[in-house]
Amino acid sequence: MGVLQYFYKAEDDIQGSKVRAICVGLFVAFGGVLFGYDTGTISGVLAMNYVKETFTSTGKFTAGQTSLTTSILSAGTFCGALAAPLASDVLGRKLGLLISAAIFTVGVVLQVAATSLGLLIAGRVIAGVGVGVLSAIVPLYQSEAAPKWIRGAVVSCYQWAITIGLLLASCVNQGTHARTDSGSYRIPIAIQLLWAIILIVGMLILPESPRFYVMRGKVPQAANSLSKLRGLPKTHPVIENELQEIVANYEFEKALGSTTIWDCFRRGNHQLKRIMIGIVIQALQQLTGINFIFYYGVQFFQNSGIKNPFIIQLVMNIVNVIMTIPGIALIEIAGRRNLLFWGAVVMSLSEFIVAIVGTALPDSQAASKCLIAFSCTFIAGFAATWGPLAWVVVGEIYPLRVRGKSVAICAASNWLFNFAIAYATPYLVDDGPKDADLKAKVFFIWGGCTFLCMIFVYFCVYETKGLTLEQIDELFETVPSARKSKGFVPADNYIRESPELDKAVVEAVEKV
């Protein structure tokens, strides 16, 4: 089935407003621009001559200063991601996103005002907390708000927004890096305020997640929200059936008792397996080495003798944006497992080629061309697969009662490894007396980790293409092996066949 055929299937498969479903998911994904832009900005800022002269006494950042300034954002995001359930499960997904944007804004203001590393670092920590909260709630809201026929593509748009943010940062850095005043770094940092304002205005308009309302016992409000998201009246059979399925599954989960953060690690309902899949896939996404390119790309290309490193970084970001689009288009056609597996193959081969050629032919024109070409191939493989799909998987594989907490834990895993890599990388590639001076050899590490991605996908990642979030619960309950998940066929009314829940479900639905 072609891409166009897929998106224009029969109406009995795709009910409701297609445009509304797509637009809601795309707008919430805009939160990724904040994350991507901030990540891309710091790489260029630390390579600017004015910043080096103003923020250091030697005109050059040490490996320690570079690693701390870059990685401290991830320390903040780790804390923010862990704290996200306090907002998303208590106040709501919508209000949680508004809070994250407000925190991010405070951090940006401090960075703009900075004239020393201390205030710049403090601002990045606070901004990081906001990004961490946002990173845990965006895929959560998208998964719960999007219809099943486009859920994977919608959540993938979060990663696409991250790549757009990276590209915008690269463009702005290219335009300001040669300035000899504070505008060289203040302009690119201050532009982040615009992205936060756009997100805040949009979230004031969008409805709350219907599944959050069900969690809070507000079934009529859930019906209203679902009606707005699907563009159908509350009495439409599609709305009634979807709401009943949500309520039935939540009543089943609620019968198991109240939840705490430790319930995310219990064996019941295969939750331990699910949380480990989410934690590992987020960790491996970082261990592919992708943020090595975007955090330290400009400095790495400078040290590798490549001319115009800012232009090269811009090219890398363009590849990143463009190649995310095929991943979004194919995710509901090729499926999660296929894209993740073959994406890992492309990335691993590209990284090993960079490492081998860079080691065998150091400081040569051939090595420089190979570095650029296969770095682009690596980024293309990541952008079309592991970039968006890692967020898709963690956004959809958890039961409603622990979904907010589980996604937060997985996002925290992403940020923990992001911090570790961002902090350690300068020591791995720099040529100081206490540094490893690996240069291109560092790609042996990334290539080896990416090879592990292939093994992990084959044995552990379930295929969830075309399933509702409630059917994914059934998948984990009835299919013991990820390798057999492609053949899964959901049963009708799987949860509602439990007789002890019939009364609770009926009473809840009658509130609509």
Supply the key terms.
Growth Hormone, Chain: A, disordered N terminus, mainly alpha, 23 helices, single chain, 0% strand, 512 residues
- The shape, in one word, is globular
Could you describe the largest sheet, including whether it forms a barrel? Answer: none
Termini separation (Å)?
38 Å
CATH class: Mainly Alpha
What portion of residues is helical? over 70%
How large a portion of the residues is in β-strands, by DSSP E? under 5%
- What CATH architecture do you see? Up-down Bundle
Count the strands? 0
Topology-level CATH name = Growth Hormone, Chain: A
Q: How would you classify the helix and strand content by structural class?
A: mainly alpha
Number of helices, counting only DSSP H or I runs of 4 residues or more: 23
Poorly predicted regions: 1-13, 495-501
What Rg do the Cα atoms give? 23 Å
Element-level helix/strand string = HHHHHHHHHHHHHHHHHHHHHHH
Number of separate domains: 1
The name of the CATH superfamily reads MFS general substrate transporter like domains
Averaged pLDDT = 84
Subcellular location: Membrane
Membrane topology: Multi-pass membrane protein
InterPro entries: MFS_dom (IPR020846), MFS_sugar_transport-like (IPR005828), MFS_Sugar_Transporters (IPR050360), MFS_trans_sf (IPR036259), Sugar/inositol_transpt (IPR003663), Sugar_transporter_CS (IPR005829)
GO cellular component, one term: plasma membrane
Report on the structure:
With 512 residues, the protein is an all-alpha fold. The chain is built from 23 helices and no strands. Helix 14 (271-287) runs antiparallel to helix 19, helix 16 (309-334) packs antiparallel against helix 17 and helix 17 runs antiparallel to helix 21 (442-460). The longest helix has 30 residues, at 400-429. The protein is globular and about 65 Å long. Keywords: Glycoprotein, Membrane, Sugar transport, Transmembrane, Transmembrane helix, Transport. The chain crosses the membrane at residues 21-48, 68-88, 95-114, 120-141, 153-175, 187-206, 275-298, 310-332, 339-360, 372-394, 406-423, 443-461. It is a multi-pass membrane protein. One of its GO terms (biological process) is glucose mediated signaling pathway.
